[in-house]
Amino acid sequence: MELSIVIPVYNSERTIGPLVERLQACITQHTFEVVLVNDGSADGSEAVCLQVAEKYANVRIISLRRNFGEFNAVMCGLNQAKGQYVVIIDDDFQNPPEAILTLLTEATVGNYDVVYSYYAQKQHHWFRNAGSWLVNALTTYSLGKPRDLYLSSFKLIRREVVDEIIKYTGPYPYIDGLIFRVTANIGRVEVPHHSRTEGRSNYTIRKLVALFLTVFIGYSLWPIRVFTMVGVSLFGLGVMTGTGLWIGWLTDLINPAGWVMVSWAIGTATGLQLLFLGVLGEYLGKLFMAYSGLPTYVEKKLNHRNPTDDSQ
């Protein structure tokens, strides 16, 4: 199987059928499968997916018992995918299916592990664009994402990387965060982006906050270290200020007022508390990362002989 196309499906009974039809028509030079993951849709999406799966032998459907969220649905699809390359595409037709071939060409020509799409002009609602900008900025600082890389949901992932991603067994998968844990060999290619043909975006404030917290807390020790540095700074400032006040009092250069001493004591104590909490948080963070299922390292498969083969 050359290609697996994973589609998380949520309330898209009018678009999922035509989308699969387009995939069958435009991908003719490659063996491929379509993995539909119905994420607890409240409309007739499940029935449509079943009809499509009966019509085409290369289409499979997995239906979740409730709505678990896009990333969980994608993780389910990745666990079922069998292709040497796996493409993740939304069910809303904003990404043309023909662009899958563009991602595949970029991956094979550039020998990339992952290829992200980006758009000359995005057709998302302004709220989703603002949320995407916030998450992209956060991942740049917390996960080491290149600044010029847009984290599109429409992307292609090589088999070896998929095998590492699905080792994660926690309840809060963040696909892009797992990708950056595995590889830095990432490409990008421009593809068209269309307006939605049906329905409206499921991108809500609640989902944005949940994603922000997942990225901020679940995939990096950066927040702990920020608070630790704040504690170190406040404690260091308190020590220097206290030393200056003490020297000034001994030399009769200054006679600090009571509120000054109270402010100094509170600031120094607060800094010391944040420092201690940061150190404890570092230990807890290390334990959390150790039990998160993320790989310690990832080997790259090379086409070479094992030296021990010559002696056998």
Automatic annotation (TrEMBL):
Keywords tagged on the record: Cell membrane, Glycosyltransferase, Lipopolysaccharide biosynthesis, Membrane, Transferase, Transmembrane, Transmembrane helix
Pfam families reported in the protein's UniProt record: Glycos_transf_2
Domain of life: Bacteria
InterPro entries, per the entry: Glyco_trans_2-like (IPR001173), Glycosyltransferase_2 (IPR050256), Nucleotide-diphossugar_trans (IPR029044)
A Gene Ontology molecular function term of the record: undecaprenyl-phosphate 4-deoxy-4-formamido-L-arabinose transferase activity
Domain Glycosyltransferase 2-like: 4-165
Protein name (Swiss-Prot/TrEMBL): Glycosyltransferase
Organism: Spirosoma endbachense
